Backbone:
């Protein structure tokens, strides 16, 4: 028997298909999942989630401030040629000095900068 | 059954269907089920050799599709085939680990072949059921889903030559099994 003949016989043997009742079962399970997702989207966020989002925002702001601070420190200690080539770092350093002055003013202490 | 019926029905709106499913469109999910469930079921059955397990895989695959979030699916048919394969092999590995015996005779039953000689249908069915899952999978994808060796290779993440070899070995084994059955 050749390969083609075996293939032809296999096709003749027929294809198994999922039972008809599987359709209702699968689609009903999927429908419940879709409804659950829709319900979750429309529901107000619980307090814990709100707090977690607020905390994440605070952490992100702190990280951003640290990065800016490090960049400005690097700019302040770098050779003038490097600083001149990075004007945004100078800007950050200036912002940091302004912030220090503001903090000193609030604390009624000399800024020292 | 004609060849045209064997291949998965084309999806009417292309892969826009996947985007609609991700958006929670239940009708799109029904369309995807009608177009691809038979192919997903057959693929799982070819690997697992058990209709009940193949049904479980079918449900898991479509549930995952309904739950899915994130990036767009470029090719829904390829996605479903790959998902069915992953689920089926994961189940097969679990069975092997737990040493659960499978019933390979349940893969294809000769009752479906109305126009064939019952003895021949039985011999062919046994020959197909006797193949290892990796070879049976390639035979099913090639003969019933009419995929090319290249497409099967992409799906199985295997070189095209490896796929072609598996197919040749499978047909050789089947030929031997059929010859043996004719002698008996």
Residues:
């Amino acid at each position: 028997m050749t390969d083609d003949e075996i293939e032809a016989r296999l096709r003749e043997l027929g294809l198994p298909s999922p039972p008809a009742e599987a359709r209702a079962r699968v689609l009903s399970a999927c429908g419940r999942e879709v409804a659950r997702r829709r319900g979750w989207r429309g529901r107000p966020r619980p307090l814990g989630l709100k707090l977690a989002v607020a905390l994440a925002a605070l952490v992100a702001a702190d990280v951003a401030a640290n990065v800016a601070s490090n960049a400005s420190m690097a700019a302040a200690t770098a050779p003038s040629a490097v600083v001149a080539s990075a004007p945004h770092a100078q800007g950050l350093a200036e912002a940091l000095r302004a912030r220090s002055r503001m903090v000193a003013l609030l604390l009624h202490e000399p800024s020292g900068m | 059954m004609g060849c045209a019926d064997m291949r998965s029905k084309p999806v009417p709106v292309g892969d826009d269907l996947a985007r609609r499913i991700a958006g929670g469109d239940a009708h799109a999910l029904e369309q995807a089920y009608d177009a691809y469930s038979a192919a997903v079921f057959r693929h799982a059955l070819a690997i697992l050799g058990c209709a009940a397990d193949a049904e479980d895989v079918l449900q898991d695959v479509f549930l995952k599709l309904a739950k899915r979030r994130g990036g767009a699916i470029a090719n829904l048919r390829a996605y479903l085939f790959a998902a069915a394969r992953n689920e089926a092999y994961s189940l097969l590995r679990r069975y092997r680990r737990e040493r659960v015996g499978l019933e390979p005779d349940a893969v294809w039953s000769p009752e479906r072949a109305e126009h064939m000689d019952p003895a021949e249908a039985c011999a062919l069915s046994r020959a197909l059921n006797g193949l290892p899952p990796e070879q049976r999978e390639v035979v099913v994808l090639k003969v019933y889903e009419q995929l090319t060796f290249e497409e099967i290779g992409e799906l199985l993440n295997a070189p095209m030559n490896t796929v072609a070899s598996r197919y040749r070995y499978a047909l050789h084994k089947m030929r031997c099994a059929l010859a043996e059955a004719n002698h008996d």
